[in-house]
Amino acid sequence: MHQLRLRPAHWAGRFFGSLWPARPKSGDIAWALGFLSVREQTLFERMSNADKRHALRVAKKVEQRLGPAASKPVMAAALLHDVGKTVAGLGTYGRVVATLSSVVAGEGYAREWQRSTGLTRKVGLYLQYPQLGADLLSVAGSDELTVAWAREHHMAPEEWTVPREIGDALTAADR
To answer: If residue 6 lies in a helix (H) or strand (E), which one and from where to where?
Structure first.
């Protein structure tokens, strides 16, 4: 299970950014799709516009930081690290509820909540989005690095299976 950290500035930025409904620029979408397999492209297209914009910002920062070391699997990891959020089907306000629920009640309830129905189930699913994203990417045939980063991007660096330099670049870009 991932560890949500109290990062109010990050959450506030993501919240206000998620209120803007615009789709990313077509040139940016085309750029991103060039790093993804056909099945990964399908997953990317399922993401909300706000999540796509966030993913594009992360990927561009990773490419700048790593240069030639920003391989397709690394760029796919940057673009698809949050793809598991699509499983829960929560909008902006539902995500706020899920995040606050996690902070107040603890993430230990997530598995129990996902066995419920309605909003409670969606909150439980949302809180497990890193593993759900890794599962989606694995089924899509993604590179192991891409799968691992979706699962590990909220873990402590000593728990990562991805190379430290890559994980550090992806983490820095996601802030």
So the answer is: none
* Cα–Cα distance for residue pair 132/84, rounded to 1 Å: 5
Q: Residue 170 and residue 72: Cα distance in Å, rounded?
A: 13
pLDDT tens, per residue, the chain with 175 residues: 444 555 566 556 666 666 556 789 999 999 999 999 999 999 999 999 999 999 999 999 999 999 999 999 999 999 999 999 999 888 877 777 777 776 766 666 667 677 777 777 788 888 889 999 999 999 999 999 999 999 999 999 999 999 999 999 999 999 8
Q: Tell me the residue type at 134.
A: A
Phi, psi for residue 45 in degrees, rounded to 5:
-65, -25
Instruction: Provide DSSP, 89-102.
Output: T--HHHHHHHHHHH
Can you say whether the dihedral through the CA atoms of 15, 20, 21, 23 is positive or negative?
negative
Amino acid at 41: Q
Q: Which residue has the tokens 């509820």?
A: 97
Residue 57: closest CA among 86, 24, 84 = 24
